[in-house]
């Protein structure tokens, strides 16, 4: 007999689904669930504390099957296999019969090939609502780290978290994202309502990244204006969301003046765009140009500090351009619990303004 209520089981399943869809590493998944739902786990300190005791409950197994395993959008075949194997292994340890449909899927998974190199792409989904309204956003990522813009990075989780916790700040604003990559932070702006963002312009420079970005936005039923292959860089989008090519290493920043979509931005956002020391001066030059063009504008940049010296080069460039920098990492409102599972300890959040006196 389970000692958890129906509601508690639904809450547990919802969180399990969030973790599964984000492809959280299985040991981290179990540790997160154990922390948030201790009642579902083995309470005996001597025993396996990662064992979900409540799996003995057939209704809970049924919910896992119906709400998670039945979904056709699997993150990757290999992740699905690891996940279902964990469930089956746990049930065996509990000496509990495996739900018929779970067993069937497990047996089938054993004969499903994943290929020598594994799955080239993965489909990650995120529940972008702070309540349990199931508003999922799905993004295609590449599994190999060949091209940085084909992966959704931790700094994008923090920036999206910040957007979702501070929606009114972005309301009715014209927003430009630099180095959008797979597009999570830009797509999170779709959740801003009453009124929504005035304009959202997502940019990157690599054709492959831009095409994936466009496909990701369309995958989530957001209408966009596609400027990726337009010979003429100028023009303004009629649609709220647009995708543009914007290389920070632009020779003459004045050519941006023709693009109202870009120079009219009131908020510039960027996640994990400070990672290459050779790009810092271009990035700061473009920030400086745009922040000085539009009175009252600001940039909000989240950065993972992997290498202190790279970040120092960026900070030095900001000081040289006389930009005002505010570190809001420890003062910003974020969602609790976050819809994203990530390690925040190395990520900072900066607000940057022009020093207009
Ligand atoms: C580490 S990724 C971050 C992607 C995304 N913002 C995220 O956090 O998931 C860095 C992004 O900057 C883009 N990028 C790198 N150099 C660039 C340049 N010169 N101009 C424009 N974008 C650039 C990359 O294509 C990539 O999408």
From TrEMBL:
SUPFAM superfamilies: S-adenosyl-L-methionine-dependent methyltransferases
Protein origin, superkingdom: Eukaryota
Classification via Pfam families: Methyltransf_16
Annotated protein name in UniProt: FAM86 N-terminal domain-containing protein
Species in which this protein is naturally found: Polysphondylium violaceum
Lineage per the UniProt record: Eukaryota, Amoebozoa, Evosea, Eumycetozoa, Dictyostelia
